[in-house]
Design goal:
The protein is an alpha/beta fold and 670 residues long. It is built from 24 helices and 17 strands. InterPro entries: FtsK/SpoIIIE/SftA, FtsK_dom, P-loop_NTPase.
């Protein structure tokens, strides 16, 4: 209704009476009247001059010199206007002054002067009317040479600016560089000088290249920073909706919504220096995600133990807040990918879609061989967020996320890696190349090149101009987002002062508790196999509670049995832990007196771990320690149990393969 009223207000009122019709006609013709008035004034001037100076040779000389001078002034003054406008103005002034001079000396109706006035004056007036129509339609440049003067200052002479559009706090102009002399790259390199000439920040100028041309595009200038005042998080964008709908996390500098289409983004690199606002951006994303019906969120924050996310922890399916738990989460994500991919394949999905999260009642998505609907429970979308991932990468290796990023796309899994500086020393090149979307907050120096594509930087994106002085300012470059917006500054929402964020988090946690998806059996089973109690007791660990279990008649024995069950690999399930070590080859078992004590055996195992860390492929398995069982004086079950203990202490990290652990360089052998 409002839109319709606005349209009606902009329509000319031509049906409300003769007076209104006349008013509208005058309004439409008024811009075209001045040239005809000037033509009439020229005729009057010629007749008046003849009345005063008829036959005077001195008047003729003076008027002729005046005509030349007036034409020269017009040409000179037009140096900062368009070439067409300059020439048009000079011809008009020269013609009018020449006719006036002739009419003053000879009379306006002598010889051909009368006809020249009628025909020439009408043609010149009409030419200005035509120009007015073309300019209004954007078909001719209005200030090309004026822009040329500006472009000359910044070293881009002969550059033409046209179709200049002035909007509230925005100026948009199409540019055309001289063919064979300059390219779009030259204009990008001159952006700082252009900002200086216009006296605006460098971030106020964006250059949008024409993909079909190396010398054409648009320059967008936003002189006033509309993001200075933060915007409070307005609430969920699509409460109870699917994660397939975009996530609203902030505003662009023109006031439009900053939207992240998660399924198009696939994997995201979040980068920014300390104090740049990464945490605010993370909270905005999580607040949106936790109001959707078909997504499960895993969050690892070993660096700060989830300090910033505590109010949201009850709504997270898994919050890994220490290094062992985070390492177990990495291994779990690696493991659930093939399990989820197999489920999607068996149910006829080429990639995850919202229908995959529902009960499978469509025969097209049935895993049954007879073609009937299988009725299987669906699998929710999974987002794994690794906050301050640099610590995890240092301890697990810079390629720990490579496999996940390369394989998770079709499994309905999104990987988010958040860190201050995604340099090659911290994040492998392969992993960085597998994170197609980037949210880049303020950085130092040239660090933006680690996150943003080169073409976005060339278009004017400059997060180094903010550093940590503009908290929450961000560039979002992602598939599904208009490419013209990749270099457009935005600002994530502010979660408010102390206490306000907690109120928002409580609202999301409680109001959407019954809407949020629970972890599906496919994902949970795969994670349990590799992470064990790190996954099954994940909520208790995150909330600092003791794991719940049924009371036992003999608590000590029950605890020992449970520990034994958790710490034995599947390959050792049938091994009798009390059995003696069988003889190796022709050698007999070591005599009981030579068997190391418990502490001595553990120290020896630590030494073996250190040795394998220096010579192995980065992983160690229970079977790798087989040749050393005699030295340890223990069997495979003991070794398996001790390696599980080392993993719990963070000195080893579980992998997707049962009984195989990744060595943690900093902590191994401590």
């Amino acid at each position: 209704m409002v839109k319709q009223q606005n349209i009606q207000q902009n329509l000319p009122a031509v049906s409300s009476g003769a007076g209104t019709v006349k008013s509208w006609l005058w309004k439409q013709t008024q811009p075209f009247v001045p040239p005809w008035i000037v033509t009439g004034l020229v005729g009057v001037a010629g007749g008046g001059a003849n009345f005063a100076w008829d036959g005077s040779p001195w008047a003729g000389i003076g008027l002729t010199l005046g005509s030349v001078a007036l034409t020269a002034v017009t040409w000179t003054a037009g140096a900062r206007s368009g070439r067409q406008l300059r020439l048009h103005s000079a011809i008009t002034v020269a013609s009018a002054s020449a006719w006036t001079t002739a009419a003053a000396v000879s009379g306006p109706f002598s010889g051909p002067l009368g006809n020249l006035y009628l025909m020439g004056g009408g043609i010149l007036a009409l030419s200005w009317n035509i120009r007015k129509v073309l300019v209004a339609g954007g078909l001719v440049e209005t200030s090309g040479a004026s822009d040329k003067g500006l472009m000359e200052k910044v070293g881009l002479a002969r550059t033409l600016l046209k179709n200049v559009k002035v909007e509230p706090n925005k100026v948009v102009a199409s540019y055309e560089l001289p063919a064979g002399e300059l390219t779009n790259g030259d204009l990008g390199r001159a952006r700082d000088r252009l900002a200086s000439a216009l006296d605006v920040p460098t971030t106020a100028i964006r250059i949008e290249h024409d993909p079909d041309s190396a010398r054409r595009g648009r320059i967008v200038i936003v002189p006033e920073d509309m993001l200075k005042e933060p915007t409070i998080w307005p609430g969920p964008y699509a409460p109870g909706g699917s994660v397939a709908e975009p996530l609203r996390i902030g505003v662009y500098d023109d006031g439009s919504d900053l939207l992240l289409p998660l399924l198009d983004a696939i994997h995201i690199l979040v980068m920014g220096m300390t104090g740049s606002g990464k945490t605010e951006g993370a909270l905005d994303l999580l607040l949106e995600l936790l109001t959707r019906r078909d997504v499960v969120v895993w969050l690892a924050d070993a660096a700060k133990a989830g300090q910033d996310f505590q109010p949201l922890v009850p709504a997270l399916d898994w919050a890994a807040l220490d290094t062992p738990s985070a390492a177990a989460m990495v291994a779990s994500v690696q493991t659930v990918i093939p399990a989820r991919t197999a489920w999607l394949r068996d149910h006829g999905y080429r990639a995850w879609e919202p229908a995959a999260a529902e009960r499978q009642t469509d025969r097209k998505h049935s895993c049954r061989k007879d073609g009937k609907a299988c009725g299987c429970e669906g699998i929710a979308y999974l987002l794994a967020w690794f906050e301050e991932a640099a610590k995890l990468l240092r301890e697990l290796g810079d390629d720990v996320f490579t496999g996940i990023a390369q394989e998770a796309r079709s499994a309905g899994v999104t990987l988010v890696v958040s860190m201050q500086r995604a340099s090659g020393y911290q994040l492998s090149t392969d992993t960085r190349a597998s994170l197609p979307a980037a949210m880049c907050f303020g950085v130092k120096g040239d660090d933006a090149s680690f996150a943003l594509p080169e073409e976005v930087l060339d278009a004017g994106a400059d997060p180094a101009a903010w550093g940590n002085k503009r908290k929450g300012y961000v560039y979002l470059a992602s598939a599904g987002v208009d490419e013209d917006l990749h270099a457009t500054p935005a600002r994530t929402y502010w979660t408010g002062p102390s206490g306000e964020y907690e109120r928002m988090a409580e609202y999301v946690v409680t109001q959407f508790e019954t809407i949020r998806a629970a972890i599906d059996a496919v994902t949970a089973d795969a994670a349990t196999k590799v992470a064990g109690k790190f996954f099954t007791n994940r909520r208790a660990r995150a909330l600092g509670e003791a794991p719940t279990q049924a009371p036992a008649a003999n608590p000590t024995a029950e605890q020992d049995d449970d520990q034994e069950h958790e710490l034995v690999d599947a390959e050792d399930a049938d091994v009798d832990p009390t059995a003696e070590i069988p003889p190796a080859g022709t050698n007999t078992a070591l005599p009981p007196a030579s068997k190391p004590g418990p502490e001595e055996a553990r120290e020896l195992l630590d030494e073996l771990v250190r040795m394998l860390a220096g010579m192995g492929p980065g992983t160690v398995a229970v079977k790798d320690l087989g040749p050393y069982l005699e030295q340890l004086g223990r069997d495979r079950s003991w070794v398996s149990k001790e390696m599980k203990r080392l993993a719990e202490e963070g000195r080893l990290a579980p992998t997707a393969d049962a009984g195989v652990y990744r060595l943690v360089p900093v902590l191994a052998g401590v």
